[in-house]
Design a protein that fits this description.
This protein is mainly alpha-helical and 238 residues long. It contains 9 helices and no strands.
Length: 238
């Protein structure tokens, strides 16, 4: 059954679900269940990720799409590495040169440690394995979810600019919850880092719109996630 056999509002409903569920799930496992046993937190986290299968289900069973693969082009790799390393270097430089010596983020360490323990990441090896999985695999899933599907399906009816703004604002949503939990609600840290996520999402939308490829956004996303886990490791386990 193809998409043109369904009312247009079916896709609109799906997009609303896709743009709101990640934020609701983050409220669950980062706020409401923060004192629950590790297994409960892990189960809630996995359940929140089940929604990430919906774009693929729509693509294959409603649009009648087929899986296609093409190798990355040189400029996709170049752009992804360049943007990712630029942000990675900026993040680690700001943290290790300015924020850590000044103790500015020290207040967030207990909450980060609690969440790390809640996820069962009680040893450096477990933390590094989890960080690698999130940086490599989860970043790819987020790019397929937010840029390929949400941005891609919004782009035709409302144009690439508004599609990038709306998709990136929704992408920012669950990060707002996470940052609020660790840095304080309506704090400078929550606001600034949330805006950074939003503008990062806009840049990834622009990269995907220009190249029609997810390789560049994925590579840079993975590098930036790796930088976040380096900072998290220093705050929680070092």
């Amino acid at each position: 059954m193809r998409r043109d056999g369904l009312p247009g509002y079916a896709l609109a409903v799906l997009l609303v679900v896709l743009m709101t569920v990640p934020t609701a799930a983050a409220l669950g496992y980062f706020v409401l269940l923060e004192s629950a046993p590790s297994l409960v937190q892990q189960s809630a986290y996995v359940a929140g990720k089940v929604v990430m299968t919906l774009p693929a289900i729509w693509f294959f069973f409603v649009e009648g799409g087929r899986l296609r693969w093409s190798p990355p082009r040189a400029h996709d790799i170049r752009d992804g590495i360049a943007f990712g390393l630029l942000v990675l270097a900026g993040m680690l430089g700001i943290y290790f040169v300015f924020l850590k010596p000044a103790g500015i983020l020290a207040f967030a360490a207990p909450a980060i440690q609690q969440k790390v323990m809640g996820f069962g990441l009680v040893t450096p090896a477990r933390y590094v394995a989890f960080a690698g999985m999130i940086s490599l695999l989860h970043s790819a899933l987020e790019e397929y979810y937010w840029r390929w599907f949400v941005f891609g399906r919004l782009r035709d009816p409302i144009g690439p600019l508004w599609a990038a703004i709306i998709a990136s604002a929704a992408f920012m949503g669950h990060h707002v919850v996470i940052l609020g939990r660790y840095f304080g609600w309506l704090s400078a840290g929550q606001i600034l880092f949330s805006l950074a996520v939003f503008f990062g999402g806009v840049i990834w939308c622009a990269m995907y719109h220009r190249s029609r490829s997810l390789y560049g956004p994925w590579i840079s996303h993975a590098l930036i996630d790796a930088a976040i886990f380096v900072v998290g490791y220093d705050l929680a386990l070092s």
